[in-house]
Structures are given as C-alpha cells and as structure tokens.
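ARCHIVE CARD
CATEGORY: sequence design from structure
SOURCE FIELD: tokenized fold
FIELD CONTENT:
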C-alpha cells in the first residue's frame, strides 16, 4: 500500500455543463498537406467512450464521452480555469438536472486545446443530456503526494484511482502498469507548457514507421501510457532518463505536431518510475466504465 497525504487533500464541488462541438470554421490541413472537414473537439459524443480505440475514427482530436466547460464564451478564463485545474482523473461526476439527473460518470482527463474536462457517461445517459444540463464534479486530487517517494510528483489524479492502479513498490523503483512506451521524439503539441495541472499534450503520429514500431495505433482512450525521457514536474520538457505516466484523453489527429492527447498523472526527473507493459492498464478496466461494461 502506497502511503500518501490523502487526508490533507482539499475537496471541491465544481459545476459545469456539456460544451457544444467546436469547429475551425474552415478547412483543416493535415501533415501531408491534405485538406479535411471532420468532427472534432467537444460535444456529447454518443458512440465513443473510454476503452475504445483512439485511432480509426473519421474525426480529428475527438473527445470521448461528454466534453464539459463552464462558460463557452470565455474558455481560457475563470471559472473554466478552475474547472480544469481542480478536476482530476477518476473524479466522480453527477448530473444534477434534466432527464439524466443523478446519473454518475467519471473524469478521464482534460484537453488544453478546448479547455474541456472530459467525463465518461454510458450512452443511455448521454442520449438524455442537453447542453443546458448541469454536472457536478467531486474534485479532489491536486496536491496528492507519495510520502515515501518525494521525487515522484503526482498531478490530476484522484486518490481512490491511485489505489486501484496495480503499482508495485520495489527497493529502487515504482513499477507502474502501462499499455505503451512512447519515445521522447514523438511528444509534440503541448511541450513547453509551464505546468501540467491543466490541458494535455500530444503523441505525434505523423511517422508511419515509428507508429508501427511502438504500436502507437493500438492506444485506447483511457490507456495509461509511459512518456519516456519526459519530465513533467515543472512543465513539459525533455530530460534523459525521466519518466512520465499519463492517460489518453482524445483521439489521433491529422494536424502536424499532433496525435492522441495525454493528461499527466505521475512524473519523475529520473528513472524511479519503471513502466511495466499491461494491456489492461486502462481507466475503463479499473473503474468498470466505458467499453469495460460491455465486455463484463
């Protein structure tokens, strides 16, 4: 059992609502120079959920589940910034209005390009939601620490979800299950951000040989992935030997410098984190939500 400071964590109730789908208003142009018009960021996405493949959709930057925001007119200002900062992966969400009232979902992460917090709900719940409905998120997790591993920094992680991840403590490392090892060269959009308590950054998928070599096209929404040689303690940067663990929150992308988006949950500037491959290392399997409910 990992020791944490969970008893000191501050808990907030945050209110938000589904954000309508966004559009660029014009052609997008992919990394091969081909123009496209496709579904993209935001919305109540009915047929995609956590646990589904992040590749193969006729879309770009698609967010599974319900993309939540407070004020659609000021996405990068308060209180949207608070919603992003304090919502953590694994937080419970509850619908408090409309036909879907009292339905329960879970936060799977946040997307910096839209300032959305992405919440997984079953399809029958999503079909009852409107863009005026209110959702309350029980936010807790920022400030969580591993008391025996001060060099490992946690962000955006619900304490209860941390307890469900099958982390093994050894004398020299923490073994953390992940589905995929992502090479440093593939980390793109989002690098250089001053901190990782909001937003995400992308696994670039523009090089087919690298995608095949590292099986990046097998990634699913909700996968825990290891970003090798990347240090997220004080922003997103390259550091040889560092390891960052994140959760995949949006689909593959066509734009240059983009790909599946990752919300950071754990990081270290050294190799104290040891990623271990586990095909079931996905939030859907840990919380029995999304596609895991169909398989059970």
């Amino acid at each position: 059992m990992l020791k944490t400071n969970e008893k000191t964590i501050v808990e907030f109730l945050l209110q938000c609502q589904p954000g309508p789908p966004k559009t660029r208003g014009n052609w997008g142009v992919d990394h091969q120079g081909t123009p496209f018009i496709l579904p993209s960021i935001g919305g109540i996405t009915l047929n995609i959920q956590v646990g589904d493949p992040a590749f193969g959709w006729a879309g770009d930057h698609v967010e599974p589940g319900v993309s939540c925001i407070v004020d659609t007119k000021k996405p990068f200002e308060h209180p949207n910034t608070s919603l992003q900062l304090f919502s953590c992966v694994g937080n419970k969400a509850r619908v408090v209005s409309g036909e879907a009232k009292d339905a329960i979902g879970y936060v799977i992460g946040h997307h910096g390009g839209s300032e959305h917090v992405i919440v997984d709900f079953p399809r029958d719940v999503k079909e009852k939601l409107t863009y005026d409905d209110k959702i309350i998120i029980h936010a807790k997790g920022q400030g969580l620490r591993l008391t025996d591993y001060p060099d490992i920094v946690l962000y955006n992680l619900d304490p209860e979800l941390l307890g469900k991840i099958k982390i093994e403590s050894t004398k020299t490392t923490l073994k953390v299950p992940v589905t995929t090892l992502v090479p440093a060269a593939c980390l793109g959009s989002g690098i250089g951000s001053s901190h990782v308590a909001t937003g995400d950054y992308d696994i670039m998928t523009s090089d087919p040989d690298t995608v095949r070599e590292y099986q990046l096209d097998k990634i699913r929404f909700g996968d825990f992935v290891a970003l090798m040689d990347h240090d997220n303690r004080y922003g997103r940067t390259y550091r040889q030997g560092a390891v960052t663990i994140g959760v995949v929150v949006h689909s593959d992308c066509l734009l240059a410098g983009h790909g599946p988006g990752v919300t950071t949950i754990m990081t270290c500037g050294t190799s104290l984190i040891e990623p271990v491959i586990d095909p079931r290392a996905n939030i859907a399997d840990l919380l029995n939500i999304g596609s895991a409910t169909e398989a059970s």
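CARD ANNOTATION: The two ends are 27 Å apart (CA to CA). The domain at 7-139 is CATH 2.40.10.170 (Thrombin, subunit H).
SHELF: design records, drawer C
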